Amino acid sequence: MKQKEVEMKVHGMHCMGCVNKIKKSIQDQFVNTEVNVELQSGTVNVKYPDSPSDAPVTVSQLKGTIQDLGFDVMDVQLKSTEV
Q: Would you say the pTM of this structure is higher than 0.85?
């Protein structure tokens, strides 16, 4: 199965509450996502299926979700992998 992975640099995270807020918000909005939020490095990694049968997830949607929480997304990298 193909998977996509997005790594985003996020500014404005100061505590574990911020980490949990971002993680929960992405998981609630986008099913079948694996979310890893690193407070120290300021990165958010999201892995999700790249399949037409699943609801599509776009980078702009993920970025918008984080921005709607009040954080700044500065850098985005997209990768595709085979699992």
A: yes
